[in-house]
Amino acid sequence: MKCPSNTSTSSQASTSINDCNVAYCEPVIFSNDNISCIACPIGTYKNETGNHQNQCLPCPLGVTTPDVGNTNIANCARVSCNAGYYRVNETHCNPCVKGEYQDERDQAQCKICPQIDGRPSSTFNIASTNWTDCYPLCEAGYFTSTNRSCSKCPYGRYKNITDLSTSCQACPFNFTTVITGATSLLDCKFSICKKGFYRPTSLYIDCVKCPIGTYKNMSTVEMTNCELCPTNQTTLIEGATYQSRYCISNCPGGQGYSWTSQNCTLCPVGQYKEEAALINVCKYCPTNSTTLKPGSTSCIQSNVHLYQTIMAPRETLKVLF
Asked: Ranges for the Tyrosine-protein kinase ephrin type A/B receptor-like domain (predicted)?
């Protein structure tokens, strides 16, 4: 007797239908477990009887079958669309447009980019093959960063539309903004602070000099504060531009900085420097005043009689200022 359809025996001289337990698949179908038969998948065909999966032959490169279970190479007439494309008809594929992608072959349509951080997203190019090609559409004042998020436009730049721009528009020459995330050219209304100058807050239209004890060695578009001189150092002027040139030893009271020796030296008689003075130079005493000795921190009136008695045999020294 003949075994049921799509089955066979594993050896000759079988005596029972129960021996018909091996898959023996007709054309169109195959077996991947030697027990049951299933249809050849899309993109393959099978025109002989057998029970091995490799008997489903692949279609030639660039074409496929319209469905499963094909018996002849002639069924391989449909164009095969790669990932990033979708099938328009039996002979033509179109690329996925911007904002869509397709990560599978031979699909009838593309997939829409998902929302990212609550924002709609899109792709930079057509024919995208993965959802990771989708980046958020950043609103005005923000640009699309490489980590697939939106970042604020930095100082000195602005952006006035929602798109996939990876940078913001620069302000005109010598102008900047006082905020990040600027959305208009009209925000570029402040001058760039040059070396030695800074803008304390956004309320300041003009730049101001760096105060004593600080410096700034670059022109900046943002509201960068001036840098402090190192510990125990200060500057002699406002608007200092370089640490190495302007930051000098912060002399204690009664001493001023000497450019000749590049050290702190005692203020000479007639000059003084207060203990907590910001100015690192000795100042002349006011009219009709002086100091008693070098290294003074204050002056005294010169019309005051100061008596200093030095004990010596039969002699008293009177010092009058």
From this structure: 34-76, 85-134, 142-188, 206-244, 257-298
